[in-house]
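Fresh eyes needed here. Have a critical look at this protein's tokenised backbone.
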Amino acid sequence: MKKSIYLFSLLLLAGAMIFTACKKDEDDPAPVDLTPVLTFIGGAGYTSADAQLTPGSTFKVGINAAENPTSKKNLESFIVIRTFNNVPTTVFEEDNIGATTYTWEDDLIANAAAGEERWAFTITDKDGLKKELTIIITTVPTVAAYKNVDMGSYNDPNFGSFMATATGTVLSKADASANQGNVDFAFYLGAVNKSTFGAPSNADVKAVFDLEGVWTIFNETLFEMSTLNATEFDAIGDTYAFPEFTGTENDINNLESGDVVYFRTTTTKRGFIKINSINGKGDVINIDMKMEQ
């Protein structure tokens, strides 16, 4: 009998412990957020959310900060950090604020390069508790477009063979020789490679145009066939996020009407060339070109 009473007592005790533990969990208060208050200033003229901008453009950001209403700890510091390609840069920093509220705004400048940049705005109070707001600024280059451009082979009497992509200008050999640093590629009809674009650094271009020993600047433009079709090329507007360039060749051969070629210049500017037409002989080509400004 004593053994039964003992076992019954243990069961009662265990039940009480379970009940107590459950009740304690249910009665635990929710954690209190003691971090400072931080909000973006919104409205006309302010950027307060992720945005797409042209490289180097100006945008205004403002913040309002306040001490936490529960902890009532004064604000201590504020910092703005921009991170591009995993490299952080401090844009603004203020310490020893020692106030219950804080307001900051400034005209910021988007990255000059294309891509995504993370902007972080962080307020810290006297207890070291932080509140952070972030926005992503995606810089998308403006597009320079050149339409209905004719180029001829090395011996064409009517059209130049050399392209200066910065201005979309076709140059004769004489003009190209006087402006070698501006020349990004040439067009010619080859006996084997047929209709071809090649960089001044390309060995065949040097031979076809007899540049070796005459020119001193040979820009290394690279090419690859694009995955875009002609319709997608035409749809590129005033701004465009050019994809990563992976080409490794300094010429591209056997071109045909309807091809879209992707290229990158020595100055890392990327662009597309749409081939509108090639004459029957293959020594005159008409193109449209769109590239980063």
